[in-house]
Design goal:
Blueprint (H helix, E strand, L loop, with lengths): L18 E9 L8 E6 L2 E2 L2 E5 L2 E6 L6 E4 L7 E9 L2 H12 L32 E2 L3 E6 L2 E13 L3 E12 L5 H4 L17 E9 L2 E8 L4 E9 L15 E9 L2 E10 L4 E4 L2 E2 L2 E2 L2 E4 L2 E2 L4 E4 L11 H13 L4 E4 L8 H10 L2 E5 L11 H18 L5 E5 L4 H8 L11 H15 L5 E2 L17 E3 L1 H4 L15 E4 L7 H7 L5
């Protein structure tokens, strides 16, 4: 147990090894008759090479996003073997740092070269436990003709009489010819019947309090969208301001009238704006939901265990319910952890806890090599597509403390001079605009005009009371417009100490 006494020191060999996950599984003959068989890996941490029956399927290098592989050609009826070899994240990231150059980074500097939870390389609040493995669901999924992915329920307009919601979904087509079709002689450039764009239809049904709306459209190309009008909409409100009404959209993909795929998406009707108005103190920073200014009360959220797969849903429910009971209405998902599990966001939706969502970058400069910028772009698109339907998320934020740290050490330089600025200034806001567009993006926490931790505008982190040994009463002297992080580190309680050490210690 790495949390008992000094055992952390005795497990530091783990992160320098390769780890092989291997198992056998049985494939039914009927599965191989489907048009597409996909290996869906929701979370591989981090450098993974996948083999099925001894054949290379693909590789991954990002812990945070789903990876899919078409594996039908690798499978056989009956017994199959899958192997996933995880390379050492520490060896790989140190090699990249040596090749591309060291950057100014808090704690372990090589960590910024790998798209992995940054806290796992150690932090001020947690141990160094740099793991490798399968940390989210992995499955084989089959599809006929096409599949639906990345649904989005986008609220276009809201009045008390009607809400207009645009339902969008991507369609991944699988072009599979039968033997009869393959033997047919066709003119060059002609299309097979299975290539026709009008064979597929999208049917949408929306249900919720006071709403039952249905519509069908043809699918042209690789996406489809339709607009639905919901009469007398019930709005989603943050904790303390009203109820948390949710709606459900069921999207069905039809081929010749037969359903070939279905996907569900929960969403809510609410609007979010960031108000920044000049005043005698500088510029305001106010979150407005449904036209009402929110007084945001809450805390940062870090992973509630160093080993994420062992966190039960009940722990999420306990902690977030406690936050609501304490009259919190906002939780900030801190940028050194993970894009949280689905249960976290579902509970925040249910409990009325607004979410300030950092992207997973923290306390350091980041590479700007083309390969890393592409990873950042792919990750941002995947994350926004996955999380955008949650009404609880009210702000996208580029990182935790990167610009503040850079400008503190380089007082004559601009945040744009920092390595990694392209990610936070250009790539992330572009992804948020293109794939969402319903909530604001903020470059960092903290950030604003001028010095990134100013009290006159933008967001502010208040750590002077703890780290500079100021008296806690001096919190009252802080004039920041929006404090997005503060705290006071303290010893654990006696029971916790007794669980992890002995009396002599």
């Amino acid at each position: 147990d790495p949390f008992y006494r000094m055992n952390e020191n005795d497990v530091q060999w783990v992160d320098s090894q390769q780890w092989l996950y291997k198992r056998e599984f049985v494939v039914a003959p009927s599965l191989l008759k489907e048009d597409s068989v996909q290996l869906a890996t929701e979370g591989l941490d981090t450098y993974a090479a996948i083999r099925i029956n001894g054949k290379n399927v693909g590789e991954t290098s990002n812990m945070f996003i789903e990876h899919r592989f078409d594996v039908k050609k690798f499978l056989r009826s009956g017994k199959n073997t899958i192997e996933i070899l995880f390379d050492s994240p520490t060896v790989r990231s140190k090699a990249l740092e040596k090749k591309h150059g060291a950057l100014r980074v808090a704690l372990e500097p090589h960590r910024v070269y790998v798209r992995k939870a940054q806290y796992s390389f150690s932090w001020d609040w947690g141990p160094k436990l740099t793991t490798s493995g399968i940390w989210r669901a992995i499955s084989l999924q089959t599809f006929s003709s096409a599949r639906l992915k990345n649904p989005f329920a986008k609220v276009l307009s809201v009045t008390k009489y009607e809400a207009v919601v645009e339902l969008f979904v991507e369609v991944e087509r699988f072009s599979v010819r039968s033997l009869d079709e393959s033997s047919m002689t066709r003119p060059v450039g002609s299309r097979r019947p299975s290539d026709k764009k009008d064979l597929l239809q999208l049917r949408a049904f929306v249900g919720g309090e006071g709403a039952s709306v249905e519509q069908t459209v043809k699918v042209n190309g690789n996406s489809a969208k339709l607009s639905l009008r919901i009469p007398h909409p019930k709005l989603w409100w943050p904790n303390g301001y009203g109820e948390q009404q949710m709606y459900k959209a069921v999207l069905s993909l039809l081929k010749d009238g037969e359903e070939v795929d279905e996907i569900e998406v929960e969403f809510a009707i609410r609007t979010v704006h960031l108000l920044q108005e000049k005043d005698k103190e500088g510029k305001s920073f106010v979150i407005e939901v449904n036209g009402v200014k929110m007084f945001c009360k809450g805390a940062d959220w870090i992973p509630s265990d160093s080993f994420i797969p062992r966190i039960p849903d009940s722990k999420y429910e306990t902690l977030l319910t406690l936050a609501k009971s304490a009259h919190m209405n906002m939780i900030r998902v801190w940028g050194g952890g993970i894009y949280e599990q689905d249960v976290f966001y579902n509970l925040c939706d249910k409990l009325g806890l607004m979410v300030w969502q950092d992207f997973m970058y923290a306390c350091g400069a980041y590479p700007e090599a083309p390969w890393f910028l592409k990873q950042a772009k792919d990750e941002a698109e995947s994350v926004v597509n996955r999380l955008r339907n949650h009404p609880s998320i009210v702000v996208w934020c580029g990182n935790n403390e990167c610009e503040w740290m850079f400008c503190t050490e380089n007082p004559t330089r601009s945040p744009d001079d920092m390595s990694g600025a392209k990610i936070f200034r250009d790539i992330l806001p572009a992804a948020c605009t293109k794939y969402d567009g319903t909530r604001p993006y903020w470059r960092s926490s903290p950030f604003g005009d001028g010095f990134p931790n100013s009290e006159s505008n933008g967001t502010h982190h208040q750590w002077f009371v703890w780290s500079d040994w100021k008296d806690y009463k001096l919190y009252e002297n802080d004039n920041a417009r929006f404090v997005s992080e503060f705290g006071f580190q303290a010893p654990a309680n006696r029971r916790t100490f007794e669980e992890v050490t002995i009396a002599a210690d």
